Amino acid sequence: MKLAWVVGIFAALMVLLGVGLTLDPREVPSPLIGKPAPAFELPLLEAPDRVFSEKHMLGQVWILNVWASWCPPCLVEHPVVSALAKQGVVPVIGLNYKDAREDALPWLRRNGDPYRLVAFDAAGRIGIDYGVYGVPETYVIDRQGVIRYKHIGPLTADVVQRKLEPMLKDLKHGG
Amino acid sequence: MAARRTLLLALAFALAPLATRAVQESALDQRVDSLAHELRCLVCQNQSLAESAAPLAVDLRNQIREQLARGASEQDVLDYMVARYGDFVLYRPPLKASTIALWLGPFALAIGGAILLVRRVRRRRAPERELTEAERARAAQLLE
Fold it and tell me: pTM value?
């Protein structure tokens, strides 16, 4: 009887531990989902005299991919981002985060530039407004300019296939 | 003598604004620091913004300072952070439906444990029986 209790409690704790191990504490739910994408105006990485604002994208579904040349996981996800951009389902805009032009531009030349354009957030201020804390991060923004999804960490082919593609299809046809 | 005193006085007046500024600055420092201790650094999640050396933590500390200097209240800054990073940034998350287990769980566990403990102690004490007359007599004999 007593042994049953001890074993029962132990088993319950093991289950809790097991569940805990499968959760990723880095995946903090973003409070920005379902909210309008924070407004910004940033110079382009390629052309400092031109400005990009999230308002330019109103009316279309698009992806904002936050990256930096100093971020190794960004290099890891780069082929996936490139493949996604190549499909051409939606435009992929880059947000170059806390980087330097002389590092970021060669990085794109080396690894290929999948972005329709890249906004240059040298100070990381816009990153803060978007709640960026671990580059790379990827946002899906709908026609009304509302953030619908956020992925933290490198995109994988699996995430693209199972999450992004159905969602983009939905957003393009439905809302 | 009088001239020297006037000079000193003039100097004191000239330096006063500098001193007040220094006092204000250090008061601001303190507010920034105490707020930074309330906020979690999301890059290294077991450190507060005050302790972390991560670049984002530095940026966010600067944000706190800028906003306080601009006249924002402590609550304004906390709201700003929560709007971007969610309740998770707060080391003292608000009491609401999604955090109720977090707040009440430890108390429930403690109370449950206390009840178990009390029951167990009572049960153990129960079999302690009174001494019989014979045992009492023997004890008295031994003590003499």
Answer: 0.74
